[in-house]
Amino acid sequence: MKKRNDGIHSGDEKRGLRTIALAGNPNVGKSTIFNALTGMRQHTGNWPGKTVSSARGEYEFEGELYELVDLPGTYSLMPHSAEEEIARNFICAGGAWATVVVCDATCLERNLNLVIQTLEITDRAVVCVNLMDEAKKKGIIPNFNKLSELLGVQVVGTSARSAKGLKELKRAVQKLEQEAYSHAPKSEQAGEADCAAPFFAREKLLRVEYPPEVEEAARTLQICLEKEIPFTINARWMALRLLEGEENVLNLIKEGFRLKEETADLIEEQRKRLADLGMDSERLKDIVALCVAEKADEIAKEGVSFVKADYNRRDRKLDKILTGKWTGIPFMLALLAAIFYITITGANYPSQLLADGLFWVQDRLTDFCMNIGMPAWLHGALVLGIYRVLAWVISVMLPPMAIFFPLFTLLEDFGYLPRVAFNLDSSFKKCGACGKQSLTMCMGLGCNAVGVTGCRIIDSPRERLIAIITNSFVPCNGRFPTIIAIISMFFVGSAAGLTQTMLSTLILTGVIVVGVVMTLLMSKLLSRTLLKGEPSSFTLELPPYRRPQIGKVIVRSILDRTLFVLGRAAAVAAPAGLVIWIMANVTVGDATLLAHCSGFLEPFAHLLGLDGVILMAFILGWPANEIVVPIIIMAYMAAGTITDYSSLDSLKSLLADNGWTWLTAVCTIIFSLMHWPCSTTCITIKRESGRLKWTAAAFILPTAAGCLICFIVASVSRLLGLAP
Fold first, then answer.
1. What is the distance between the alpha carbons of residues 310 and 469, in angstroms, rounded to a whole number?
2. Cβ(30)–Cβ(81) under 8 Å?
3. Residues 275, 278, 280, 285: is their CA dihedral positive or negative?
4. Which of 12, 271, 347, 578 could form a disulfide with 400, with the two C-beta atoms 3.0–4.6 Å apart?
């Protein structure tokens, strides 16, 4: 198809590529619509802030090509967050030729606030009422003709997950072009100018009426601004924002042109006049927001009918349990324990099977190296070093992640994670942090690097840094094998089968709770020292509960999360394997480098209730925490390569023979829970924070906390005669 970018034209010529902004509240199915229209595979999650940057793609309809931009989910175009500012600036500054505002059919009144704010900027818009399948189940019936009449723009119903209504949506966007063309002047130049303008003639335009004093001030500024600002910016909307003292808007227009001195004076004059009437900037913002909300309520009452008055009864019943004062936290802990139980139980056999297969390959590689006469040192470095460590990381990480991430994603899709944030919001606020941090903390259970990246959903830079620095206090998937193995060997005892797994799960859940408590305490410490400040307020939507798309969730979570995290872990584990092999095989005097280093660390490690081998294993395990236990085994056996034990009983005997007691086990668990982040997480922290000092803080803080707690536990135990 031949494509042109020369604006509006006549005849059979192809019109140019149009950029369509896709806006909407979080959790309305925006990304699902984007994927369905463009064919791009973008993961969609049922929790606020999932889309934190725009994605672009193209789609074709009846010979016309359109560029679709998926804007960050936002509740308002009166920005209180980075997402809201990105969306607002893109729409009002001419980034989009038209805007599709996606709404949730099950809670249309709330979504109409964004629709109205968008229509105050531009009426070159289409309203897409999504999730019609869920609305039908709840007996919610939007009247699209009535809504179109009230809003002054076309309203289309869709069920994006089943691809229903998408053709009608495309046609509605196409109709905007036809309207723009029909209202364009005949001259090509004028036609291009009109095409860029935010408004074109409509029989009925939606207009929010504000108090007379505000309308008068806005009208005065509007007349003046229409002569100075680009015609691509709506002058009435701009006047209202300037009266509110919206600095971002003022900066936005300053970047494109310079206001005359008399215009700037007029702005200050009108703001002072309103202030004298008791309408300062904050009061004016409240008045504007209230008027918009009242208009949204009015439209919703006329345009939506309900078959059932108690359409959301099921959601309310579930919320009484999942967010109840006395049931919310216990249910959250029980659900966490259930996920760990399924993960531990389900990963055992696949991990063993995968290990057997990978180490069978190792034997074949060894045979190949011998057949070609490869030097022993090269075979050791490549096969026994690099390959064996990679095999360990893959066999230990892949099965539990392939179980944990889909389960976690199902909770996202179901709509439970915002309830977790709701339950923990008050605790984080008391610590001077943001409730959204609980969401990033949950993501850290899978991978701390992913949790750090997820901190982008936190709007406040101060609170985002707190979340980034403290994310590693929650153990990731890579630390679980060490913790679980020690729990099973030293604290479950002779229990077997189901009982053993359940006891391990309960203790592991307790360890996670300790990590959460430490996260809160360290967040409070940071908010009172390095990152002082008051906790910000934020809007947290509790989306309707939805039936997860199980098949899609499993496939996407494995591809988007499991393999991605595994790939990053493998990339840093490979060189670590080489270093470990060199230290275990290069001798100085009568001992290896590994033995010398372990001996050097012994006095300090003893103070922490550990030994030099354990501490050295954690240091060498910095690239990948999964290899800590194999390094410990290798050092104790004086083997030249990472070694596995066939059973936990034999491993426990080896550890006991090398001086392990219950105190050693406890302190190792504590240190595994609280020590420096892995190399991948450190790199991610540097990228997300932009400063090496915050990476250092994230490295030092958990390490210092772990050392201090281990020292206290060891000292008190020895003082009381409970341990040697």
1. 44
2. no
3. negative
4. 347
Q: Which residues contact 356 (CB under 8 A, 6 or more apart)?
A: none
* Element of type H or E holding 7: none
Nearest to 126 by CA among 18, 236, 22: 22
User: At a CB cut-off of 8 Å and minimum separation 6, what does 202 contact?
Assistant: 123, 152
Among residues 631, 606, 626, which one has the least CA distance to residue 616? 631
Q: Which two tokens stand for residue 535?
A: 């906790």
pTM over the 0.85 mark: no
Residues 6+ apart with CB under 8 A from 567: none
What residues contact residue 653 under an 8 Å CB cut-off, 6+ apart?
Answer: none
Q: Give the Cα-Cα-Cα angle 174, 177, 180 (nearest 5 degrees).
A: 150
First to last CA, the chain: 80
How far lies 265's CA from each of 260, 262, 489, in Å? 9, 5, 76
Amino acid making up residue 96 = A
Q: Judge contact between 514 and 676, C-beta under 8 A.
A: no
Distance CA 274, CA 285 (A): 12
Average pLDDT over residues 479-500: 78
Reported CATH class of domain 18-196: alpha beta
Neighbours of 546 (CB within 10 A): 16
Burial (CB < 10 A; 0-12, 13-18, 19+), residue 692, is exposed
Q: Which two tokens stand for residue 139?
A: 């007996």
Contact between 605 and 615 under an 8 Å Cβ cutoff? The reply is yes
* Mean pLDDT across 376-404: 85
Per-residue pLDDT at 41 exceeds 70: no
The number of residues in the chain equals 724
Cβ pair 543, 105 in contact under 8 A: no
Q: Are 112 and 38 in contact (CB under 8 A)?
A: no
Do 94 and 206 form a contact (C-beta atoms < 8 A)? no
